[in-house]
């Protein structure tokens, strides 16, 4: 079979284009294309276009073209994404690795310019802005200035990369978030490019270094998050090897009721699909209900694919896609997409539905107002049940007491209310007095201290943002205000949002409530919420208050939003404004008032909730094509701060040995082109013993750097003042900081040190309690290999490559758990760490392990995909526990990566071999 057999010419306005027509596979009797899910059809086209009978073999093409609903044994295919999307937190270490590879090639006598992206790479600097300033008209300018003050060294490095690497573009800071910029501008849907002397048209596809890359699935583009190391391999021309996925179809019927938001819908979808266990599967939406959803709603659902565990949540191209491309100033592209999506059989008309592994039905009429919390996005709470739900969090079974107007009468000696007299046993609620800006403010269990309309999930959706603005307008007109203890912020995902909110006259009302624009970037959703008022933080710490945040993001994991906040709740931007006004999370806003107007009259949420017709009228009038045209015409130019960064254009990077931000990583130290055979693991020790749902936020360094933790000690030793520590995310280019912060979350629960949270472990055989990094360093000095034991859903959350990089740098050779999240497992493989899985029904608990044992793992020397290995755990008294584990090296190429010590050594050896 030759791909030339499938070439088809299509003329558009006098221009000839060629496609690889997958429909000819059906005409030739090879496969029934019309039965395939649309996402699988895109993979078929990809393999047909890349067919060379070397990397992509004829059998690979046949395997995907004859897709089956399920597979007893995984079948691997090589996928070639058309481009790579990065954000700066994950992008910086990836670019650092590329720079290090150039050094390695130079050392080996090769041409360092061969290390260069071979496909388009777009990096959006969006994860570094922090909400240090809020509630004033100059908050944005001050936060951006602070961002450059903290990160100019990193930004100079990225600007160097833009000058020094081909196929590499950078969207400067203060522009927006990568997912929304991708959705509104970078996404092509159909790419036209010259190949082999022909102008080709083919489906857009990508991988991204952020797990929420899936937002682009909302316009029919195949894309998902991968680790930075996998992205680097794709940039360097390697295929992305993947198992042919199962595809779960979600048939949508009906339409959303008035007042129901896209956020209510996505939280329901997240809960349902997480319960259905769609991990490592594609989810594809279809049906008449889907036809009722505009692109911003689809993008919201697609964005949260990682939260419901799917590789992606895909919406095929249809008329709504074309409308959206036209609205976002891509009319010429819209015409191309309309023509070629139909030619390639990728356009969903609704007349015929594909086959799916399983079909779930979702009636949109059933969706009700919802939030999610306090620590997992899949834990949906119906709005009117939130009050009782929070009571259960505090182990308090009855409804909360009436609002305390004269709190001083209940004060105890500590300055806090002893609420045992007014609440219930065993955990009474506490209320404390803080003095903010000269005023006495009461806070306590249930108080909201952060209310953030943050980017990523919702700010690409004009309906919920204009809805939030309308609610703010009605609230201001009622004389409502937001309590002083609530830190408010608005962080849009693109500058287009500011344009249409201003055009609709809604920004003054946002600002009247303190929701001034604080930045164009990720902010609160990744922990860049900035500091709380010092007195509030002290009261929370001193009295163990369970305070809350309300945000319109997609992640609310423990200690993610702010390390002092235990209860984090996801909701629509409209509800964020509503709860900010209420000032508490433990209130039933369906029955109880938000507050009172100046005349003492109660104001209820329903009194100020915007009508659908009001929202739609403003969206239709004020979300204008010209805004997209003007904003994206200068998206790569940057502000004056970016333009004033001076960098040299060189082939290799001039590393600064004194830098605490950018360091040459040790991955290629003493690198040899010869592969050292992997051996069995003997006499290993458990560094951590973990439970279920350990997230990449627990593993990877994220958020603030504690002064007394190893990373803080390192920076202090480099004469960095505590106020200049910045965040772990901003220092991802420095492996010395990051390895010290791995497993450094202050809320991590290592069962080796029971009843204690934080980055601690026991060092054996002394049974000495130490910081995890310090124990790992001592083990390394004594040549002791390490393992990690865990439970179910290990590695859920963001695609943090440092969760894997830090793991390997600590000396961890293998991880043994009950199940993995897709991206983290892949990242472990990419860094040469062996992912192992307990047999079904077994766990470290059922096997009687306690982490004190010596571990030996055999079978590694003859590794094959998914083969069984034997583990022997020897206890102190000499008794042994033997058990089998399954290697989660899922394919031949993953075995090769592991034997090479990871993806990067594999790619480097391949490049040098072909030099």
TrEMBL record:
Q: In which pathway does it act?
A: Carbohydrate metabolism; tricarboxylic acid cycle; isocitrate from oxaloacetate: step 2/2
Every Aconitase A/isopropylmalate dehydratase small subunit swivel domain range: 713-840
Is this entry keyworded Acetylation? no
Co-factor(s) = [4Fe-4S] cluster
User: Which InterPro entries does its entry note?
Assistant: AcnA_IRP_Swivel, Acnase/IPM_dHydase_lsu_aba_1/3, Acoase/IPM_deHydtase_lsu_aba, Aconitase/3IPM_dehydase_swvl, Aconitase/IRP2, Aconitase_4Fe-4S_BS, Aconitase_4Fe-4S_dom, AconitaseA/IPMdHydase_ssu_swvl
Gene3D superfamilies given for it? 6.10.190.10, Aconitase, domain 3, Aconitase, domain 4
Keyword Iron recorded: yes
Q: Which family does the similarity line name? A: Belongs to the aconitase/IPM isomerase family.
Quote the function comment for this protein: Catalyzes the isomerization of citrate to isocitrate via cis-aconitate.
Q: What is this protein called?
A: Aconitate hydratase
Which species is listed as the source? Answer: Desulfonema limicola
The major lineage groups are: Bacteria, Pseudomonadati, Thermodesulfobacteriota, Desulfobacteria, Desulfobacterales
